[in-house]
Amino acid sequence: MSVLSLLSVLSVAQAQELPVDPEVPVSRSQAAQAQVEEEGVSLVFRGLGESWDDPYLELCYKTQLFMGGVGILVPLHPHLLLDLEVGYSRQSGTSWVSELNKPGADATVFQMIPVSVLGELRQPLSAGEIFVGAGPSFATFQEDHPSFEGEDGVPRSKTSGVKVGAELRLGIRLKTRYQPQVLLPPAPQPLVQGVALEIYAGRRLQRGSTPGFDLGANRVSVGLQVMF
User: What is the pLDDT of residues 10-59, one digit of tens each?
Assistant: First the structure.
């Protein structure tokens, strides 16, 4: 009877050493979802350079300019990203007297807010990722100029509108050596989890030959991606 009791105790102890919840295989979709949730939304602070296609803008303004912008990166899949970008530029210039074919004496101001919503396919690298993107682009503009009569006979001192087009983009993101200080709970965790250097070249295509400014442009960007 004592031998049976000893064997019973040994069997119970051996059972307790076995894992209660054996590891369950994770599907590809579950692994991808976990990776996306771990990555989270990030911000990119960009310095944008544009070279506009419109030759008439060159008469009053610089058609090669530098502006600031911000991108919001939303991961949808380990190989797919949504990139929402907003920029802003403001230039001072002079009016153009078409009758004399020379600059006038009146001051003008041209403002533009380029917005793009791109889907990006990306390929992870050991030091970052390369990506190619495409999507719609909207260039909102406003020009303050001397008053003149429009075709309807109404004097106007501003011209504004939105140019709809598309954008193509190719770039790379490289991880930096930034390492946040890891704090143990209950201490607050670092807000910034990583920083990457981003460089891309792109092309904004304006749809058709709509009247007014042609805001199609070649674009380049250098920025810092901040991951939270």
Answer: 444 444 444 444 455 667 666 666 666 677 899 999 999 999 888 777 77
Q: How far is CA 9 from CA 4, 12, 15, 31, 72, in A?
A: 9, 5, 10, 41, 60
Structural domain including 139 reads 37-227
CA distance 88 to 96: 24
26 found inside a domain: no
CA dist., res. 39 & res. 41, Å (int): 7
pTM as predicted: 0.74
- Tokens 């030759």 found at: 55
Q: Which two tokens stand for residue 156?
A: 């106007």
Structure tokens at 3: 């031998």
Rounded to whole angstroms, the Cα distance separating 222 from 220 reads: 7
Identify the CATH number of the domain in which residue 157 sits: 2.40.160.20
Q: What is the largest CA-CA distance in the chain?
A: 119
Please indicate, yes or no, if residue 130 is contained in any of the structural domains.
yes
**CA 138, 144, 150: angle at the middle one, nearest 5?**
90
Rounded Cα distance, 123 and 104, in Å: 52
Listed residue (129, 2, 146, 127) closest to 60, CA to CA = 146
Q: Is residue 135 part of a domain?
A: yes
Nearest to 81, CA basis, from 26, 30, 128, 140: 128
CB 42 within 8 A of CB 226: yes
